[in-house]
Description:
The chain is α/β, with parallel strands linked by helices. The protein contains nine helices and eight strands.
Amino acid sequence: MGLKTIQDRVEKEAIRVGRDPKTVQLIAVSKVQPNARVEQVLSAGHRIFGENRVQEAAGKWPEFKKRFSGVELHLIGPMQSNKVRQAMDLFDVIHTVDRPKIAQTLARIAGETGQCPRLYIQVNTGAEPQKAGVLPTDADAFIKMCRDLDLPVEGLMCIPPAEESPAKHFALLAEIAKRNGLDGLSMGMSGDFECAIAHGATYVRVGSAIFGSRTYEADA
Ligand SMILES: *Cc1c(COP(=O)(O)O)cnc(C)c1O
């Protein structure tokens, strides 16, 4: 189990770049991991977890939440509009708000229930056609739209293109957040979380470096 190693590396990098380590939160990404591995990390005292599928999270987290108090669950994968209500019920934070229809659905349900998870807007910093997220050029307008809907937008999230060096994408996300007065930056994964911390990440999302590699059969 790599939890302690990753916690130490997060803390070291924060200190190295002159940040308070408490301003960087580690999301343990438990998607597709066997329950026994997730349980080890829970037993070690970690409480912040990320899942990328609503359905998968609904199958395992209600039970874990009964057994371990104080779990904070983050949705880091794409959300279809017919899953928004379920996602709002299950997750404390949603990182993948990426289009008007989702924003409107979130606002409508929040109006009904009086509750809404903390929200991050996903930005497609590499403008990749296959990737979710608003384009950098549309980000300011979309952030404004979400705020006009009274949604609790806390920050921005990105997944840089796999084949590029991530630094300029992290810098771009930080710049868009700053000019919009947003403090939260969800960026950095197993391979690049230190670089993300140097660029201001407040949440890093680390899966395989904590849990070991994923087997993707269950994901097919
Ligand atoms: C799977 C996933 C991660 C974690 O990836 P690792 O490389 O295993 O750390 C982070 N963010 C998102 C959006 C993911 O889907």
